[in-house]
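Marked as duplicate of an earlier ticket. Keeping the data here for the record.
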Amino acid sequence: MRSAKPYTNATFTKRVDHAGGRHRPPRAPAEPAACVPGCGAVYVKRRWSQAPSARLLAGSAGTPLVVRLCPACRRRRTGVPHGYVHVEGGFFVTHRSDLEHLLHNEAARAREDNPLAQVMSWRHFKDGSLLIATSTEHLAQRLGHALEKAYDGAVQYGFSHENKMAHVWWKR
C-alpha cells in the first residue's frame, strides 16, 4: 500500500491519495453517548440527534450514557469551521434585523435536522457586512439558499473539495 504524496506544480500543491478508500476510524463510538459538556446532543443508533425521542431511547437502553463531545462541539473548540457565509450590501445594512432573524431561524431548523450543523461565530464588520462561520459546509449552503429564496439578491458558491470547505457570498 503506497502512502499519499504531494503533487507539486509551479502554481499549486495538491495532495494525491493513492491509498483510497476508508479514511474513518474502523469502529463507531460507544453507544449511547451524550454531548453533555457541549450542545446536549445524544448519540444513538450511530447518529447524533437532538430529538426528545432519542433521549428517551438512550435512557431506556439499560447501559449508562457515555459522556463525550460531538464532532461539532470539537470543531467549535478547535475553531476550524467548514463553511463561511459572507453577507453584505446596502440592503443588508438597512434590513439587518430581518436578515439576521431569518439566518438564526434557518440555523435552528438545520440543527433540528442535524445537530452537527452549528453556527460557530457571527462576526460584524465596520462596513456593515457579516461573516458567519459554520461547522459544516452544508449549513453554509443552506443559509445561502435561504437568503436567496427570501430576499433574492446575488449569491455565489465556492467549494474546496480537498479540505471540505464552502464559501457563500450573498449581496443585494
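See parent ticket for discussion. Residues 145 and 155 are 8 Å apart (CA to CA).
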